[in-house]
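RESIDUES AND SHAPES:
===
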Amino acid sequence: MKYCMLIMDGAAGLPLPEHDGKTSLELAHTTNLDRMAESGAVGLARTVPAGFEPDSAVACMSLFGYDPKVYYSGRAPIEAVSLGIPIDPGESLFRCNLVTVRDGAMVSHSAGYITTDEAHQLVDALNQALGNDSIRIFPGVSYRNILKLKGAEDTALAICTPPHDIPGKPVADYLPRGKGSKALLDLMSRSEAVLKNHPVNKKRIARGELPATTIWLFWGSGNIRQMPSFLKTYGKKAAVTSAVNLLQGLGKMADMALLQIPGVTDGLDNDYEAQAAGALEALKRYDIVIIHIEAPDEAGHTGSVDEKVKALERIDSSVVKRLLERRGESLRILVSADHPTPITIRTHTSDPVPFLLWGDSIGHNGAARLTEHEAKKSGLVVDPGYLIMGKLLGV
């Protein structure tokens, strides 16, 4: 038996009043997912335990089959693992976004989706100006970077807000606060002068693009909990394909193989066909392959119904269609959102997410589509959500 998990990041959402109360999943034309639903089982999974931030780190850890209550200690360390950043006792790690703040408001949590090359140039400048033996920024993908602080353990106690939670809002109300926040506020303030006249930003402004005006620090943590390998936990050899550091970090922590597939990105320009083909090729070598696609989440953060629907339709026509072609083989598939990213609020919620189980020995439970409404109507609920991996593997 072979297995495949398809994670459509942020695919779930809330009813859209301007679209007759339909969600993005309901608006999208998903012929292939519909075919799967008509012979599979649709339900809801609570991937974010009560009291946890509705973040992809928590939600995807659940989908990977690991209990966040046991293994989650913060997102920044997970991303640090993916980047090969060593984590020593007494160090604190933070996600360090390049953002755009204008007239005191958060205009863009991603500095207009700055390119990775541009971001690396800005990070180099920031390290030259702000870095020392105790402070270093590690470049990641696009706007996503990691800050490591030595000898400042209390900074991990600061109360911080993700920038994608405050689109268009005054940043003064959401700056780091509480114990340990002084050092973070100082770095954020000092970064503004470094970025203001940097050639990268000047060129972006000349092209009509948003500049990176400051760094934004959040998701701080001072430790990481070790996870047992997926092979030891579930008895299966696993691989994962994703364009984002978080999923790669989770994969490394679970000792999964990381698939390097050219063309896989975190946006609408993702090469969906190549990612599907690479994942199916990897199934020849591994028992289970996890396909993670970021585009629906990014569209949700920007508040674009059209882009979110387009991302879902591309997933359906280019990825799900390829999976359906394996009908008749000994294969089980799980398709799921990790968390909702509703267009109406442009950030994550902790609501249960719709999922679809399809394939060998999976019976139909009456659902017609993979949508929030159909999932709720089915009555099938997986809570806690980390048990969903057992449902897929039949263990």
